[in-house]
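Data availability excerpt. The first of two example chains:
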Amino acid sequence: MKIEPFKLERYFARHEFTAPWLLCSSDCESMSVRDLLEMEPGASDALASLWLGYTESLGSPELRQAISELHEIITADDVMVHSGAQEAIFNFMNAAVEPGDHVIVLSPCYQSLSEVAVAAGAEVSSWNLHPISAREDTRNSWHLDIDELKSLLKKNTRLVVVNFPHNPTGFLPSREFFAELSALSDLHGFTIFSDEVYRGLEYNSADRLPCMADINPRAISLGVMSKTYGLAGLRIGWIATKNSAVYQQMAAFKDYTTICNSALSEFLAALALRNAPAIAERNLGIINGNLQLLNRFFQEFRHLFTWYEPKAGPIAFPGLKMGDCRKFCSELIEKAGVLLLPGNLYNENLNCFRIGFGRANMPQALEKFREYLLSGTRS
């Protein structure tokens, strides 16, 4: 397979573990193994006696059951565990997409959501989010047009890929919009791959969308431990679906990737999901506190940036009003040690940058950013 370099990951490979201040992380605050084990009596003893042989290819029964409880109608038998969301995306696209298929992908997007489909031989079209400037009674926001999706549909459209809450904008559509998307799938016969890795981080819980796999029998919902729960080191992701044909295709393809998952990671992931509300509530507390700081920051520097306030998740996608965002981010890391993610890593035409606010040290990183802007060292 020939595939384009993953621009975002190559950027992080250069900077993530050397930059003093990460201000673009897409995950939430993590925790230690000790902290996680303390959430459940007897967990430490159970971990100590864990058998380190091969695990079940589809995932441990305990973990699949815990994942199913995040859903309404999905059962443990509808869940397949992978080594992170990335493997799940890769396996799905290779198992379900055929050369010549037409695929529509919400854009901007995590690159593998489109690039793996291209590598599998599909024709890929972008369904674009659009920035909307504030009026007297509104704020700057992002807009997604369902009619634009309808105009992109072709006779050979086999798949529509969406991501809500959205990376990198924090956009979240209404329940009515989500239901209309599902109805279009029924009408035209395309499959929906729904990236839901930030589900549970809605600032208003009333805005939370159902899992697409719970409302559409052809749909695939994607989840992961790294985003809402901040447990990226476990490398555990999953798909949930009632689409038995796709499920069986993915199960067969997984035999050529990881075969099965880490016993230790599955144990800890199941433990975390049994305590999912507490972990998500902790992370939402961090996010909400940091978001207040960002609102004040972007009000202070409104002459430099356009602030599109997100509705969910630990990331947002502000615009740079003057100058080139790539150059701006490059100078910021060089002169202040603060890492932002330039928008061209998502789309060459986006003069925006991703800012992350799911971690506890975000206030310190933001202050370093502020000091840089006030110092007059910007070119």
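And the second chain:
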Amino acid sequence: MNRILMILCALPLLAVASCGRNTAVPGGSGLIEATEVTISSETSGRIERVYVDEGDRLLPGDTIALIDTVTLSLKLRQAEAMKAAAET
């Protein structure tokens, strides 16, 4: 009987003790390494030259590659010719 009474008294005490606030904030530091980055350009085309190497740090707006402009130049001349033909 004493054992049961002691257990019944201990249970509420344990319940109250476990309701305390945990004020510890988990922390840590480390390095997260990107494995894949998506890049885009304003135009499409064949890459003629790459100016960066893997692992280089870049800022927004940095030039990383040169796109071949031959196809774009041909399309521009064709559009200008079509415009001139439409105006005459």
